[in-house]
Write a structure and sequence with these properties.
single chain; alpha+beta; ten-stranded mixed sheet; nine-stranded antiparallel sheet; 16% helix; globular
Length: 630
């Protein structure tokens, strides 16, 4: 154990809620009789297995630096009581969180000040709880807070059903008898009986705005994570009364170790009245590919929009000068090289060389750049589209093309054109604007910029019914790039990882025949493309307390090259939990299959739970989910 200012203790707690439900919690705190602030992480993850390794590294570190660190399983998950809230009743998680904050603030070892910590869905949940309990909650650190489940009006295929399948399987796992005793089985069966697949509610819900900051907030994200825009929006809304600081770096989804000292600095300032200088840090610190940049305020006055017309600085090869409209009509498998929608740091998560994708798109290239170009912010593409092609999906990718032809993805965006033109085609104020995801990158001299347009992006997005795509008028379309003025350069210091406690020993047994993380097959005779993903996290883990946990997930996508609405997706997830010393053996299987028609997604979901190899619960759901979210 590394040496920290405080020795620490650990204990498990039961937190009572007003309705009698008890939440399972683990507490690390300094070995002192004086009350201290609390750093609370509250999520649907299971603290005794799924997040145990990460919890055992980070929470003792916070406790060793003077904060009580509490990790709590949400209602109906892990070893907590109650039933998992449905997506329609997700507000119950916020209500429970507010009660949890009140209970912690009243403990004799707490001085009444709470800081919230969360990643992904728990990061967005922390912001919502803070808005409901700003008196006790004094600070928030949110990493990669979840955003809407639609992209530019299009329905996500990637991450949507895979996450829904995982959420159903995770909620179907039983409480652990080592921690809850003989009541585990009755709690489990009640939990199984109450479960509903979250996919329909997730896709049918309107695009919820990202939660705003109600207390001083530190927001962290990776540039390639879909939460990057939310982190920048939080920084942009910073005020003197509610300061927000954001850090965007080259990280996958999650809170990187390098940012833990910044989180501690944030909590120390707002929870312990230590002048750490945290409010004086820049509004945004971000990695630009070659250096760390500091900007205060954000948006930065050192970044300006530079227009690249699609018939000037950017130009399509092979388009006749007298042809006003350029038709964009992509094969259905365009998008196979998109990479992961939510990158977790696996090798196959990164988008590969984009030349094959570029070949399936209409590309507009610049001349080679005479000097480095720093991009910092969200590009915006204004398009003059053919009104005949309304209702189409427009996908824009911005790439940097090296002298050897290698095409590297910088950012991308999506827009669904309205079903009918609101104005005549010559009304410039009706031209749709496609906002690409924010980017922080430096394009070297000698490289060219490439804007690639396509009308499909499978398997990220469900394809539309119209095979004709859309047409664009390059002479009245332009890409506005957020370019940093070299004279306005401001540098920030790099971040360093702290010395964390060693995690508890976890024995991993990998499969003898490990599947590739990502493999794509082209069946030329059938004109079919199939992609199969299997995360590298599969395998069997033996925990120090004797729990044996095995996971296996396979996600498959298929589409016919020239057949709209042929896309299909399926995810299979199997979880097995064993305690050989107790003779406890549980297996949970979930499967989600999806296909589509012009107006709906057609979902078939299956759940099967086994105890010692015997089926104790099985259920199937068939759902028609409207594409428009109504």
């Amino acid at each position: 154990m590394p040496s920290y200012p405080h020795r620490t203790t650990r204990e498990d707690l039961r937190v009572p809620l007003p309705d009698g439900t008890e939440l399972y919690a683990r507490l690390w705190r300094p070995a002192t009789d004086a009350p201290v602030p609390v750093v609370l992480e509250y999520s649907t993850g299971r603290l005794t297995d799924w997040t145990a390794t990460e919890d055992a590294r980070r929470h003792p570190w916070f406790a060793g630096h003077g904060h009580a660190a509490v990790r709590v399983d949400a209602r109906g998950h892990g070893n907590s009581g109650g039933l998992p809230p449905t997506a329609a009743a997700s507000g119950l998680l916020v209500e429970d969180g507010v009660e949890l904050v009140r209970w912690l603030a009243g403990r004799p070892w707490c001085d009444g000040r709470i800081g919230l910590l969360g990643t992904g869905a728990a990061g967005a949940l922390a912001l919502r709880i803070a808005a409901r309990a700003p008196d006790a909650v004094r600070a928030v650190v949110t990493a990669c807070p979840d955003g809407p489940h639609r992209l530019g009006g299009a329905v996500l295929a990637a991450d949507g059903h895979t996450r829904a399948t995982a959420e159903l399987a995770d909620a179907a796992r039983p409480p652990d008898p080592l921690y809850v005793g003989d009541d585990w089985r009755a709690l489990w069966l009640a939990r199984l009986d109450a479960l509903e697949p979250p996919l329909a509610d997730r896709l049918a819900a309107p695009a919820a705005p990202a939660p705003a900051a109600a207390v001083p907030t530190l927001a962290v994200a990776g540039w390639s994570d879909p939460s990057a825009a939310a982190a920048l929006a939080l920084a942009e809304a910073s005020t003197a009364a509610v300061p927000v600081r954001a850090v965007l770096g080259p990280w996958p989804h999650g809170l990187p170790d390098e940012l833990l000292p910044e989180a501690l600095r944030w909590y120390d300032h707002w929870l312990r009245d230590i002048d750490t200088g945290a409010p004086a840090t820049p509004a945004l610190r971000s990695w630009l590919g070659t250096r760390w940049s500091a900007d205060d305020p954000w948006p930065s006055p050192g970044v300006r929009a530079v227009d690249y017309g699609l018939d000037g600085p950017l130009r399509a090869a092979g388009t006749a000068s007298e042809d006003r409209w350029v038709r964009v009509r992509s094969p259905q498998h365009t998008g196979l090289d998109a990479g992961a929608y939510v990158p977790h740091g696996r090798p196959a998560d990164r988008p590969p060389d984009q030349r094959e994708e570029d070949g399936r798109s209409v590309c507009f290239d610049s001349r080679p750049l005479p000097e480095p170009l720093e991009l910092h912010g969200a590009p915006a593409l204004t398009l003059r589209t053919d009104p005949v092609g309304t209702g189409a999906l427009v996908v824009a990718r911005l790439c940097a093309v090296a002298p050897d032809g290698t095409s590297t993805l910088l950012t991308r965006g999506v827009l669904t054109l309205p079903p009918e033109p609101a104005e005549p085609a010559d009304a410039t104020d009706s031209d749709p604007v496609l906002t690409l995801a924010p980017v922080g990158a430096t394009v070297p001299p000698g490289h060219r910029l490439r804007l690639a347009l396509s009308s499909t992006y499978w398997p990220w997005l469900w394809p539309g019914a119209d095979p004709d795509g859309f047409a664009v008028d390059p002479s009245r379309s332009a890409l506005a790039l957020p370019v940093r003025d070299p004279a306005a350069r401001t540098d920030a210091a790099p971040f360093r990882s702290p010395t964390l406690p060693l995690p508890p020993p976890l024995h991993l047994t990998e499969p003898l025949t490990a599947r590739p993380e990502r493999v794509t097959v082209h069946d030329i005779g059938r004109r079919e493309w199939r992609t199969e993903l299997s995360p590298a996290t599969d395998g069997t883990r033996t925990h120090p307390d004797g729990l044996v946990r095995a996971e296996h997930t396979v996600t498959a996508y298929r589409v016919l090259t020239a057949t709209p609405l042929s896309a299909q997706a399926r995810t299979d997830r199997t979880l097995r939990l064993e305690r050989p010393a107790l003779g406890w053996d549980i297996t949970v299987h979930t499967r989600t299959e999806l296909r589509c028609d012009a107006t709906h997604l057609l979902a078939h979901t299956q759940l099967r739970a086994e105890e010692a190899g015997n089926v104790v619960f099985t259920k199937e759901w068939h759902q028609r989910i409207r594409r428009d979210g109504s």
